[in-house]
Amino acid sequence: MVSTISHLPESGSLTREHLVAWLAALAGHRNREEIHDLSQALDIIHRVHDEEPTFGGMQHQLALVQTADILDQLRLDTETLIVALLSDLPNAELAEAACFSERIQAMIRDLVRIRTVAVTGSTDTSAKQSENLRRMLLGLADDVRVVLVVLAKRLQLMRVIGELEKEDQQRIADVTQRIHAPLANRLGIWQIKWELEDRALRVLQADAYRQIANALEEKREERERFIEQVIVRLQKQCEQHHIDAEITGRPKHIYSIWKKMQRKGVDFSEIFDVRAVRVLVDTVAHCYEVLGMVHGTWQPIPREFDDYIAHPKENGYRSLHTAVVGDDGKPLEVQIRTRQMHEHAECGVAAHWRYKEDGKGDAELERRIEWMRAWLEQPGDASEDTDAEFEAQRIYVLTPNGKVVELPRGATAVDFAYAIHSSVGHRCRGAKADGKMISLTQPLESGQTVEIITAKEGGPSLDWANASSGYVVTSRARNRIRHWFKRQGYEQHVQLGKASLEKETSRLGVRKPDLESLLPKYNFKSVDDLYAAIGRGEVSAIQIANLQIEMARDDDEEITAKADRRISRHVGKGGQVVVQGVDDLMTHTARCCKPLPNDPIVGYITRGRGVTIHRKDCSVVKRLREDQAERLIPVNWSKEQLRGTYLVDVQVHAHDRKGLLRDISSVFSNEEVDVLGVKTHTNSKREKASMRFTAEVTDMAQLSKVLEKLAQIPDVLEVRRQT
User: What is the Cα–Cα distance from 587 to 572, expressed in whole angstroms?
Assistant: First the structure.
């Protein structure tokens, strides 16, 4: 266990003399500048907290310094100790930390986020919930040292837990056993893990703890005398073989004894490793040489040998464990490891931030830290190459009652609603994050408390199942939405499908598709079946609209293939068309209809301006006189389009309000679409606004996405492509 040093009192008040002695002890392994920074942090907590008591009545300053002392004994860097001292700054006092580095301030902000989550308030004790809480703590911290501060604060609280009310002791010990001790184990900080486990067991299983403690105490003198004899005997053998060995008696912590008794269903007398020694050597070869000495001196106990050097534990722990029958006929455990393995076993990840002379870091250690963080966030993928990317792929958000919900990064409030329950997702109409209204397409962040606003009845929007709409990213939510629509009546699905397809073709400004020609592709017997599939969300309306465009293009290309010559010409900034039977003519797009690649098109031979490319359904083309119609020639888009941009007019009708133009402009900006012109008209009596934007898009898919985003803006009534 980690033990407090004598310079700090266990309770009562923290005097100036205590602080001077503590800083003097730290000066033995920290430089003058670091001691100055720690003194500055102590001055801040003295001003902010003064004589303020903590939960349980202890002086707040003393609790904070005790926390920093725990981290010092784990050899953490000075930055981490400063963060521990300032970890309980009220939000209004965070400016006090401005005198320190941005890294320190960032870690303090992370601690504030963790503090507001109030993990200890959760009443869900399931294994899944506990795991999610542990992973959320890691997900909220951009620096893993923040988690070490959280663990040190928990250990300090557990050391004074006896001062609290019985009910509070039970609650805190339960959370410690479920969340903090396993988290310390996963990080590899076994010193903190063991003490947290023992202290939690002392509260939660008082009788069992007392029974084991008494059994250990009763046999203490006998055990210590036996261990001393074993150490002397092994030390002589190592000296004879010229092995530099450090041999000590290894105390067995009570929780591990209790856990083993529970797991094996045995009593205290059948636990083999109550009496144990630990041997530290320089090399792996020496480990196995000492093992041979032990097995040659005492009789090994079958099935009680573990080689964690050849086969390390998942958390990186390495050592040889064996149990033998001692001279008195009682079991003895022997652990053998190198000094490097022991260093890792004692301090684990914390050793990576130990004091560095001259401030020089170790790149390899930093790489391992990042690797371990990736493993902690995605333990199931630990065997994969996690060096490539360290960003967490999951987020952890809270329900209003404190339950943690795990979601993929980028998940929205709709995904969250369906993760709670399908009925909540179906009736979702709005959401709040940390008490503020958010858009249903806004990605959630770890640590947020999300509340779903539901209707009493109703179902999801068909747009939610559209991948380009941005409402959902999880397959669970998308499948639930599609399943809901599938369960509705056939006729209702047909009507929904018709409305959805008409809305999409109108918005994109394309012709109504010939659905009969599409039936073989989707294996439907009738057009109504196809409409029903669109209504259920099984087939996308955008997909149908775009497929019709592609089929029209293929028909044009088949006609063009029969022509004598095929001359490829550029149109606009990136378009490329094939002109039949005509060479050396300029081509340009018509400003009246602004065709996009895959739109059905026709060429019009002008006088002195070459060929103007119109959409086939352009109103100008339809109004041509008979003698002018003779100047129309077949053209179509080339299969090999150059990458570029195309002009398009977007018509928006909306309720007029302040900030409307700003919101619309933000959509174009976020989608990286340039707007070249804007025409607006406002009807002040009806409070309606009509806007036409001339924009540059790369293709029909980008246009469709922009139109979808514009339609989601509050107060927007209609969005469509103007043709």
Answer: 8
